[in-house]
Design goal:
Blueprint (H helix, E strand, L loop, with lengths): L1 H50 L13 H4 L15 H8 L1
Length: 92
């Protein structure tokens, strides 16, 4: 009887290991897409213009360290909106 329980636990362990591996791959692909997404979008836009017969060169955005550096609550609101004090002064 104990052998059957041990066998079921092994199958469950394999499933959990597989799910962890899939989760790690998903997180890595999301991170790569986030970093490279704008570059890929620009290239596909250039390809679409070339296929339509237009010769356009799009401006290449500069990738700064804020895109790939560690994010925490100290820089959470960076670039989201103007500080409250500047909003009040612009209304006057």
């Amino acid at each position: 009887m104990p052998q059957k329980c041990f066998s079921k636990n092994q199958k469950g362990q394999g499933l959990i290991e597989y799910l962890i591996l899939v989760a790690i791959i998903a997180i890595a692909s999301i991170a790569v897409t986030r970093v490279l997404g704008q570059q890929i979008k620009r290239k596909y836009t250039e390809i679409a213009y070339a296929l339509s017969g237009e010769q356009r060169k799009l401006a290449q955005p500069k990738i700064d360290s804020s895109i790939y550096q560690k994010s925490d609550l100290s820089n959470f609101m960076k670039g989201s909106a103007a500080p409250h004090s500047q909003e009040n002064s612009s209304r006057d």
